[in-house]
Amino acid sequence: MRFSIERDTLTEAVAWVARALPNRPVLPILSGLLLTATVGDGDAPGELTLSCFDYEVSARIRVPADVTDAGTALVPGRLLAEITRSLPGLPVEFDDSVGSDVTLTCGAASFTLVTLPVGEYPELPDLPVLAGTVDGGVLSAAIGQVVPAASRDDTLPILTGVNIEFTGDLMTLAATDRYRLAMRELGWNPADPDLSSIVLIPAKTLADAARMMSPGVPVQVMLRGDQAGGRRDERADAMVGFESGGRRLTTRLIAGEFIKYKSRFPAEFGCVADLPAAVLTEAVKRVALVAERGTPVRLSFGPGKVTIEAGTEGQARARETVAAEFKGDEPTIAFSPGYLLDGLIAALTAASAQAAAAAQAAAAQAAASPQAATGETASGQAEPSHGSSTETADETRIRLQFTSPTKPAVITGTTRDQADEAPDFRYLVVPLRALASA
Questions:
Q1: Pairing between strand 92-95 and 71-76?
Q2: Of 45, 48, 97, 371, which one's alpha carbon is 20 to 30 angstroms from that of 419?
Q3: Which stretches of 212-336 are DSSP H helices?
Q4: Using CA of residue 261, residue 265, residue 266, residue 267, what is the dihedral sign?
Q5: pTM, rounded to two decimals
Q6: Torsion of CA 368, 370, 372, 377, to 10 degrees
């Protein structure tokens, strides 16, 4: 095996695959990173494939390379990642023609890597069933909104996952750690319009998958096991995979039944507050700086405003006021700062995406209408513009709904024009008073 490759291309590819390497491999061989070089055919350039698999998670990426001799080598993965990060910005050459080791050369720097036995390395899993495709930017944003709510307690493995439900052209992601629950709905393109399936994916692996997704680039969702046929598969080989832009990540599913999360969202609320999304989020970030462990951030609603407070007597305290529209009989509620911020940031993302989509639709309509394009109404008068980024930011709103300071509240993101529409993202969070009394 002999090939050369650009340093930045190699570094990025190795770093991405190395994230999937196990921290404590059951077998030493599983700490390896597999390099497979193939010679180009005609006008097609050569290609380097980097991959790893520990029987739970697999990662694979393909990048262009100038391949002289095809071949395969298994090298220590984390060591290779550290070496590539330190290399100068020059082309990198690999050569295993001398002995059984691999020589890596970059400018004046040279490294010799002891190889691991390729024959003992497991084959990467095959995922033959394409479930459908979805825009990478949309799915990545949805994952980012839901993953923070997943539990990090390994004693409850079901809660460490993200539940994804496929129903026709609708995909629903949900995660919870018992004290909060995030749910996001999005459209996608199923290979089978009648597909109905549920998979429970480790949240950490799903977050790593989001790193390979880009706006405008389709992501292929692939399934293996009976979940591809519409049933939850409890077998050990049930897997899900994501592939986009030459990268593929697969993972085994978490066995078990996720909670009936949709019934956890209350149907009615006694209190409703509408607040400016970006302004509120920044205010909570500032006030939360003085909130020590176990100290809540309190929201106190008054006429046309909400006062955000944190801190206790004898310690640092903070207070900030933000404009708000409020209806209800319970003007005060308190939350864990981290839980509140996770919900606000996710809802702000949802509201901003909603506002951007509305702006794009308005722009498309304006382009299709000569009168709209010139900014005139049917009477010939100029019509005010609504397309600036500042106006879009001002239109994004947070809606906070709750019934009492001890019952779960729901946070959603929206815009003024779409405030009455069903939100595609919902974040349920237990107030801190309720947590303290639990």
A1: unpaired
A2: 371
A3: 277-287
A4: negative
A5: 0.85
A6: -140
List, in order, residues 6 or more apart from 143 with CB less than 8 Å away: 162, 173, 206, 207, 209, 210
Neighbours of 334 (CB within 10 A): 21
Write down how long the chain is.
438
Q: What is the mean pLDDT of each run of 10 residues along the chain (438 residues)?
A: 95 95 92 94 85 95 94 96 95 88 95 94 88 96 96 93 96 96 96 93 95 94 69 65 94 93 92 95 95 89 95 86 95 95 93 71 68 48 44 74 94 78 90 58
Nearest to 244 by CA among 216, 269, 219: 219
Distance, in Å, from the CA atom of 410 to the CA atom of 293, rounded to the nearest integer, reads 23
Judge contact between 361 and 370, C-beta under 8 A.
no
CA distances from 365 to 186, 305, 371 (A): 23, 36, 10
Cβ-based neighbours of 311, under 8 Å, separated by 6 or more: 290, 291, 295, 317, 318
Domains and CATH numbers, the chain: 2-120 (3.10.150.10), 129-261 (3.10.150.10), 265-366+390-437 (3.10.150.10)
Question: Is 163 within 8 Å of 177 (Cβ atoms)?
Answer: no
Distances in whole angstroms, Cα of residue 42 to Cα of each of 37, 39, 45, 47:
16, 10, 8, 13
